């Protein structure tokens, strides 16, 4: 679907997958007006296909567009475009359990020009790819590197938007994590380098027995849809849930005195991943006993059961395509 100044959204087309042809002076290539989303379509136990919370993705996409001075795509247009692609690719939606069809909606500037200003033309596209279960052979805890040298997002920056530049800026820290033998980066706040924000592509949760805490939305971390869903699911399951501030010292001390029992990360790709160990310039430690925790696995199952249709969708999160 295209957008241009004075015309608005027009020319919705469903076309076979093919390369895009871009002018070398396309404004996206130089000034990075590029935003995206990620969501999944599941084939459910009863044979129907449904996407998980596409409205939430559509609304976050609008928020990202506002931050990047791009036009907002109407929520219904976003959902209709995803639906049309899933219907077309229905045969590619895997039919077993956690496997899904991953959808990647994105928007880029398409005007040609070298001046730094918002483009007058945009292109919205959705592509799809089948995704297997994230963990084959059992859920495996990840090891994380606390990034003190690099920050992902600063107050007033684009951290709460899902824009391409955030990921470009994170690659060097991800490479550093890999050098330290870790799977993922954990980002700290930009000002004090003390408060836990999020992981590379996932939000974090800290489990203190029956009490569960997730870092509050400060404006510099992504408001994850899995994060928001788990706030509700954890409450449904009777846990005491809160959004708050957790520092590196809180994590280390809670771990040392045993009050912090589990830590997990959550996002569309892996749903829930236990965090098994932490490395930083100051200290390394194992989280709990280093194995997937009971609360982590219970929440993981509760969310997946909704997504795969094993239990009733009491929150109205599944968008049925028939
Ligand atoms: N943080 C970042 C930086 C991400 O890229 C993602 C993945 N979209 C998340 C958190 C988790 O968000 P969601 O639950 O909506 O997938």
TrEMBL record:
CDD domains: BCAT_beta_family (cd01557). Pfam families: Aminotran_4. Its EC number is 2.6.1.42. Keywords: Amino-acid biosynthesis, Aminotransferase, Branched-chain amino acid biosynthesis, Pyridoxal phosphate, Transferase. It catalyses: L-valine + 2-oxoglutarate = 3-methyl-2-oxobutanoate + L-glutamate; L-leucine + 2-oxoglutarate = 4-methyl-2-oxopentanoate + L-glutamate; L-isoleucine + 2-oxoglutarate = (S)-3-methyl-2-oxopentanoate + L-glutamate. Pathway: Amino-acid biosynthesis; L-valine biosynthesis; L-valine from pyruvate: step 4/4; Amino-acid biosynthesis; L-isoleucine biosynthesis; L-isoleucine from 2-oxobutanoate: step 4/4; Amino-acid biosynthesis; L-leucine biosynthesis; L-leucine from 3-methyl-2-oxobutanoate: step 4/4. Its cofactor is pyridoxal 5'-phosphate. One of its GO terms (molecular function) is transaminase activity. NCBIfam families: ilvE_II, PRK13357.1. Belongs to the class-IV pyridoxal-phosphate-dependent aminotransferase family. This is Branched-chain-amino-acid aminotransferase. It comes from Streptomyces luteireticuli.
């Amino acid at each position: 679907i295209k957008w241009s100044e004075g015309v608005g959204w027009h020319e919705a087309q469903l076309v076979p997958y093919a390369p895009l042809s871009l002018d070398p002076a396309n404004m996206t290539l130089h000034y990075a007006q590029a935003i995206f989303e990620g969501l999944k379509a599941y084939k459910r136990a009863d044979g129907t296909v449904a996407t998980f919370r596409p409205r939430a993705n559509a609304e976050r996409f609008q928020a990202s567009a506002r931050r990047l001075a791009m036009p907002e795509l109407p929520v219904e247009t976003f959902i209709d475009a995803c639906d049309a692609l899933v219907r077309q690719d229905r045969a590619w939606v895997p039919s077993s359990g956690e496997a899904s069809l991953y959808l990647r909606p994105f928007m880029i500037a398409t005007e040609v020009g070298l001046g730094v200003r918002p483009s007058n033309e945009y292109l919205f596209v959705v592509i799809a790819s089948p995704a297997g279960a994230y963990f084959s052979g059992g859920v495996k805890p990840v090891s994380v590197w606390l990034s003190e040298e690099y920050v992902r997002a600063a107050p007033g920056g684009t951290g709460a938007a899902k824009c391409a530049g955030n990921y470009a800026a994170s690659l060097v820290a991800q490479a550093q994590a890999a050098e330290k033998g870790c799977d993922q980066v954990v980002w700290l706040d930009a000002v004090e380098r003390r408060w836990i924000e999020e992981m590379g592509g996932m939000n974090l949760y800290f489990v203190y027995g029956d009490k569960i805490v997730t870092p509050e939305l400060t404006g510099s971390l992504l408001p994850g849809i899995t994060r928001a869903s788990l706030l509700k699911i954890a409450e449904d399951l009777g846990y005491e849930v809160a959004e708050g501030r957790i520092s590196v010292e809180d994590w280390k001390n809670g771990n040392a005195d045993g009050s912090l029992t589990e830590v997990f990360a959550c996002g569309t790709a892996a749903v829930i991943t236990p965090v098994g160990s932490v490395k930083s310039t100051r200290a390394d430690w194992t989280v709990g006993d280093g194995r997937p925790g009971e609360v982590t696995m219970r929440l993981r199952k509760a969310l997946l059961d909704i997504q795969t249709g094993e239990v009733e969708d009491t929150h109205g999160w599944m968008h049925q395509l028939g």
